[in-house]
Amino acid sequence: MKKKINSIRGMHDYFPEELTIWKKIEKTLKEVLNSYCYQEIRLPILEPTSIFKRTIGDVTDILKKEMYSFSDKKGNSLSLRPEGTVGCVRAIIQKGISCIKNKRFWYLGPMFRYERPQSGRYRQFYQLGGEVFGCDKLDIDLEILLLTFRLWKKLGIENYVKLEINTIGSLNDRVKYEKELVLFLKKYEYLLNQESKERLYTNPFRLLDTKDIHLKKILKKAPLLKNYINDISRSNFNKLLKMIELHDIKYIYNQKLVRGLDYYNDTVFEWKTNENKSQNTICAGGRYDTLVEKLGENKTSAIGFAIGIERLALLIKSLNIFSDKIENVNIYIIFIGDLNKNYSVNLSEKIRNVYPKLKIFVDFSNCNLSKKIKNAVSFLARIVILIGSNEIEKKCILIKDLKNKTEDYISERELMLKIKTFFKNV
Ligand code: HAM
Q1: What is the pLDDT of residues 363-397, one digit of tens each?
Q2: Would residue 209 count as lying in a domain?
Q3: Best substitution site from 83, 114, 278, 280 to test ligand 1's pocket, by max atoms within 8 Å of Cβ?
Q4: Does the C-beta of 83 come closer than 6 Å to ligand 1?
């Protein structure tokens, strides 16, 4: 028996049926991003490993366990990007940060993390990210939340997602807090599982958003992060919450929300859904005002977000939102006998010249007529054009309207005019 060739675990192929939802999502996302003046940026999938080490954090799960890293022929360590923010910052520094100030970018593409695959969690997944540079005003934090909320509304899922938001203060606040947290948790170290024990000494901050119920109980008595946040950050966060309320966006102030990447400060947020069984965060982001500096440039404030496209598609599919079927084909051309092939191909080219937006399928298969008609139906074609010797002799073409179940013999000239009546905006 031949050995079956499979894709790499956690990396998936997406066929046209699934991409129908993806395309609708992408179209909506791009429209909304455009309306907020975000511009597209395309970035390499491979980056030097060092830039991730300097920014994401040496002791984060991503850096410790999830990177796809390898050496190139010259021995340079390269990594498949696990996320888009760091590469975007590297790119704007390379381009010259001064021309980037107060600019908004978006990108869409695959990211790679060696995680344990399950529904909504993959080793190759797609993110649509948005990043804003050079704006330190709270207004931009609000604008990003308004933008993401608008996306959900346009997609019709605003009632199925909720915003969780927190402030993690400055990096100094974090250091002070981590010291106190470790002191507190050491008393309970014997109760912690192996992973939490390790985190206690490597990345105690991440213990706050643990899923371990024992640790969750212990953390109820732990010092609170909010008591270590500096006055400016705290007051800004309170102002931001008020601004969000004015715009009628419901939120949950989640003091345990800290994010899995080390570059954040102040505002952090996640949009979550209860509909996906696991992996319920569909979008996440926050401020990262020190990241540009960490990569060697002058301090530049920055904030961004990224949406997990697979998770969003799962949610939309489970809600059956885009239930209307999309025509795969507009016009399906069937010819009978090889002698009529040339005429059919020529006709299809003429139609494409006049109606470039239409999808025209010429059936070159050897199937019989009824099989070909069935195929046209399964392709959701609107009209079938049938070319047999009779049709050519009589200079008449049989046109079948599959929607209204009618048919008619017309001349080629009439056909060219009639097509317009079947399709909008052609
Ligand atoms: P992140 O939370 O690591 O943040 O990822 C953002 C989103 O990508 C998640 O909320 C989730 O929807 C999706 N995602 C992450 N990992 C996976 C996976 N293994 N499989 C499927 N989907 C996944 C970032 O990546 C930051 N760069 C976001 C950001 C942009 N912050 C500021 N600017």
Answers
A1: 999 999 999 999 999 999 999 999 987 776 777 89
A2: yes
A3: 83
A4: yes
Work out the average pLDDT over 107-128: 97
Residue 354 shares a structural domain with residue 305: no
Query: Domain range spanning residue 94?
Result: 16-169+232-319
Query: Which of the listed residues 281, 291, 301 should we mutate to test ligand 1's pocket, taking the one with most ligand atoms within 8 A of CB?
Result: 281
* 309 Cα: distance to centroid of ligand 1 (angstroms): 10
Q: Which atom in ligand 1 lies closest to the alpha carbon of residue 131?
A: 33
**Could you give the strand order of the β-sheet that contains 46-48, starting from the edge strand earlier in sequence?**
46-48, 77-80, 68-71
pLDDT of amino acid 326? 63
Say whether both 163 and 176 belong to one domain.
no
Known binding residues for L-histidine are 83-85, 113, 127, 131, 259, 263-264
Indicate if 392 and 303 belong to the same structural domain.
no
Query: Is the Cβ atom of 305 under 6 angstroms away from ligand 1?
Result: yes
Whichever domain contains 313, its CATH number is: 3.30.930.10
Q: What is the pLDDT of residues 156-201, one digit of tens each?
A: 999 999 999 999 999 999 999 999 999 999 999 999 988 899 889 8
Is the whole-model pTM more than 0.85?
yes
Q: Is the CB of 173 under 6 A from ligand 1?
A: no
Find out whether the beta carbon of 133 lies less than 6 Å from any atom of ligand 1: no
158/254 same-domain check? yes
